[in-house]
Amino acid sequence: MTPVIVTFLPEGTKIEARPGESILDILSYAGLDINNQCGGEGVCGKCRVKVTRGRVNFSSKHLGFLTKNELEAGFVLACQTEILAEDIEIWIPPESRKEDMQILTQYDVSFDWLRYSDELAPEQKQALTVDEILRYEAPGPLDQGPDISRDRALRPLCQKYYLELPHPSLTDTLSDLERIYRELRRTVTLFQVLRLRTHFSCLWGLAAKLRHHDWKVTATIHLRDLDAPTVRSIEGGDASKQNYGVAIDVGTTTIVAQLIDLSTGAVVGVEASQNRQVHYGEDVISRMIFACGHGGLASLTEAVGVSINSLVDGLVRGAGIAHHDITCLVAAGNTTMTHLLLGLDPRYIRVEPYISTANRFPRFQAAELGLHAHPKAILHCLPCVSSYVGGDITAGVLACGMSDHPQVSALIDVGTNGEIVIGNREWLVCCSCSAGPAFEGGGVKCGMRAMRGAIEKVRINGGKVIYWTVGNARPRGICGSGLVDAVAELVAEQIIDQNGKFIKYEHPRVQVADEVPEFVLAQPAETETGEAVAITEDDLGNLIKSKGAVLAAMRVLLENLEISFNDLKNIYVAGGFGAHLDIDKAVFIGLLPDIPRERIRFIGNSSLAGARLALLSTEAFRKADMIAKQMTYFELSVHPEFMKEFVASLFLPHTQMELFPSVQKSLVRRRKHASKNFT
Amino acid sequence: MTPVIVTFLPEGTKIEARPGESILDILSYAGLDINNQCGGEGVCGKCRVKVTRGRVNFSSKHLGFLTKNELEAGFVLACQTEILAEDIEIWIPPESRKEDMQILTQYDVSFDWLRYSDELAPEQKQALTVDEILRYEAPGPLDQGPDISRDRALRPLCQKYYLELPHPSLTDTLSDLERIYRELRRTVTLFQVLRLRTHFSCLWGLAAKLRHHDWKVTATIHLRDLDAPTVRSIEGGDASKQNYGVAIDVGTTTIVAQLIDLSTGAVVGVEASQNRQVHYGEDVISRMIFACGHGGLASLTEAVGVSINSLVDGLVRGAGIAHHDITCLVAAGNTTMTHLLLGLDPRYIRVEPYISTANRFPRFQAAELGLHAHPKAILHCLPCVSSYVGGDITAGVLACGMSDHPQVSALIDVGTNGEIVIGNREWLVCCSCSAGPAFEGGGVKCGMRAMRGAIEKVRINGGKVIYWTVGNARPRGICGSGLVDAVAELVAEQIIDQNGKFIKYEHPRVQVADEVPEFVLAQPAETETGEAVAITEDDLGNLIKSKGAVLAAMRVLLENLEISFNDLKNIYVAGGFGAHLDIDKAVFIGLLPDIPRERIRFIGNSSLAGARLALLSTEAFRKADMIAKQMTYFELSVHPEFMKEFVASLFLPHTQMELFPSVQKSLVRRRKHASKNFT
Question: What pTM, to 2 d.p., does this model score?
Answer without folding.
Answer: 0.78
